[in-house]
Amino acid sequence: MWNAEHILMQRYGIVRIYGRKAGDGLGPLERLMLVAWFLVPLLWCAASGRLHGALERLSSGTVGADAARILASLGPEATVGVALAGAAAAYLTARWLSGELGSGRPVGKNAGKWVYVGSTAGLFVWAMVDPVAAVMGFVASHSIEYFVLVGRSVGSEAVHPGPLGGMARRPGGRAWFFVVYGAAATAAFVLLYRLAPDPVLVVGALTIGAVHFFYDAFIWKLRKPAVAASLAVGLPS
């Protein structure tokens, strides 16, 4: 099953990048709001009996999938839970709208944040209609966002010395970075798959996954202005 917590944290992190650009302090509220938004379609699918079918199409024997299967068996409890989660989501969303609209900042000043939060809400609403399609949407956007953010971060290295900065300053440097990186990663996986014993292949895949989560744990939680600036992907003022 997809790592919902990981994708949700990335969504929250990007919302906060936009928020820091505008100077708002809505981070704690936005975290709770996104969690409530996530719980509504999850509990809705469990209460309506649709979670079993979605899991069969998406999941393997992972801890997250097993936990979701337990949730899918709790239909009556999920019905109560979705009502509570829906009330919490409505309350938190109203508070968020009040904070954004009552700040005195024009909506167009940070249009990127509004578009991103709106698209996130749309995917959660669609998850109540077609959970599999919504999951595919979240996974696809998760990958695209990584390319955009990494590309933006590599571009910001052009003002710094070093090999990466030198590559970023060259014409088409970012494109070459992705080509070289993609070729190296593909070659490493092919070699592991074809030549390495199964234990080495498993350890390699798990290590890469662990580094990925370790990296994200820092990226989405750092509040240093320089880091936020290097990852800024907002619409031009």
Largest sheet: none
**End-to-end Cα distance:** 39 Å
Sheet/helix structural class = mainly alpha
CA radius of gyration: 20 Å
What general outline do the C-alpha atoms trace? flat
Count of structural domains: 1
As a percent range, the share of strand residues is under 5%
The low-confidence parts are 232-237
Give the beta-strand count.
Answer: 0
- Alpha plus pi helix count: 11
| H and E order | HHHHHHHHHHH
* Mean model confidence by pLDDT: 76
Which percent bin holds the helix content?
Answer: over 70%
Q: What would your notes on this structure say?
A:
This protein is an all-alpha fold and 237 residues long. The protein has one domain. The protein is 80% helix and 0% strand. The protein has eleven helices and no strands. Helix 6 runs antiparallel to helix 7. The chain is flat. The two termini are 39 Å apart. The C terminus is likely disordered.
Provide key terms for this protein.
237 residues, mainly alpha
Task: Provide the fold topology.
Layout: H1 4-22, H2 27-48, H3 51-58, H4 63-72, H5 75-101, H6 111-129, H7 131-156, H8 163-169, H9 173-195, H10 198-219, H11 225-230
Concise overview:
With 237 residues, this protein is mainly alpha-helical. It has helices at 4-22, 27-48, 51-58, 63-72, 75-101, 111-129, 131-156, 163-169, 173-195, 198-219, 225-230. The longest helix is centred in the middle third of the chain and has 27 residues, at 75-101.
